Amino acid sequence: METIPQIRPVIQARGLRRTFVGRRGVVEAVAGIDLVVAEGAIFGLLGPNGAGKTTTLRMLATLLPPTAGEAEVAGANLRRDPRSVRRRIGYVGQQGGADHSISGRSELVFQGLLYGMTRREAERRSAELLVAFELTTCADRRTETWSGGQRRRLDVALGLVHRPALLFLDEPTTGLDPQSRARMWEEVRRLRDQGTTIFLTTHYLEEADALCDRLAIVDHGRIVSEGSPAELKREIAGDVVTISVAGNSEAAAALLRDQAFVRGQEAIDAGGDSLRVFVDQGRSAVPKIFRILDSGGVDVRGVSMSSPSLDDVFLRRTGRSLRDEAS
Fold first, then answer.
1. Over the stretch 258-289, which tens digit does the pLDDT of each residue have?
2. Is residue 48 situated within a structural domain?
């Protein structure tokens, strides 16, 4: 009988918590997170700013000690052996870490030396990364002259100098233009295909959907949903009908609430004029919606239909739109 290869977890976290003491008392930034990240995958934490994503990542990368909980990261215990964790991971923060007063090549060589390489080894590795990230044409200029996309690719290259098994990326495309963001997505996929496990945080719905093999949606320091993007969207079967009405949407919600063909509904904004309705078949549901609202005296200004999105998953789990939270 053929043996099915077992996928090893590169991260296993249990009950990970982090609290901070502020002027108003104790703030719980991460409220007991359990995670398993498979080797060779792109795993994402998706959620609004302030949800606890960066705090979770910084704990797993040994930059913040957990208040409670345990984790194994890249085969080492996070609490008992953080030095081994640091040797085996790469980390790219939101702000990057490059010195803009020196050249990109010098920065990469210096990073290699910090990890114990000989100068020859560091120069060879730097040359490889400059080619891989298409930075050779600007490699010997000070990075203050580089574009934002080039500097962000250099940040990732710096995190890869020592060939880590696991790379942490905190909001890797924040501030990039669409072209640079698409280029970064290509680089992240290429790293995954070459065997590097990627753990990233993002508040961009499209980024999580396009990149992640698996993701966890985080809100107020807790995981509210986890799975592949396709699995999460399958939680909301059928179609999503968005209705705009004259005045408050509460009257429309009341008319549709007990209809057999309606699986659920959410107001897009409390007290606003728009409503999302979840139905099995949008094409047959839309005419029914028009008839019911018209007979109830609700003036419909617009209707649109779409497949469920990750934002719909967030909305169903939290009662808020992630697009609104991120804007």
1. 899 998 888 877 668 899 898 888 889 999 99
2. yes
pLDDT > 90 in the chain, percent? 71
Residues 280 and 303 in one domain: yes
Mean pLDDT for the stretch of residues 181-209? 94
Quickly list DSSP for 109-177.
HHHHHHTT--HHHHHHHHHHHHHHTT-GGGTTSBGGGS-HHHHHHHHHHHHHTT--SEEEEESTTTT--
Instruction: Give the angle 297-298-302 at the CA atoms, nearest 5°.
Output: 145
Within a 10 A sphere around the Cβ of 290, how many other Cβ atoms? 14
Helices 119-132 and 104-114, axial angle in degrees (round to 10): 130
Given 172, 206, 232, which residue is the final one in a domain? 232
Q: Say whether both 170 and 290 belong to one domain.
A: no
Distance of CA 91 to the CA centre of its chain: 15
User: CA-based diameter of the chain, in Å?
Assistant: 79
Class of residue 82 by CB neighbours under 10 A (exposed 0-12, middle 13-18, buried 19+):
middle
- Residue 34 within a domain: yes
pLDDT in tens, 219-231: 999 999 999 999 9
Which phi and psi (to 5°) does residue 9 adopt?
-75, 135
Indicate the average pLDDT of the chain. 91
Q: Are residues 212 and 44 in contact, defined by beta-carbon separation less than 8 angstroms?
A: yes
Are 259 and 206 in contact by the 8 Å Cβ rule? The answer is: no
The count of domains in the chain is 2
Q: What is the mean pLDDT of residues 39-60?
A: 95
87 and 153 part of one domain: yes
Separation of alpha carbons 65 and 181, rounded Å: 31
Question: Whole-angstrom Cα distance, residue 322 to residue 314?
Answer: 6
Full domain range(s) for residue 26: 9-232
Instruction: Tell me the one-letter amino acid at 203.
Output: H
Q: Is 17 inside a domain boundary?
A: yes
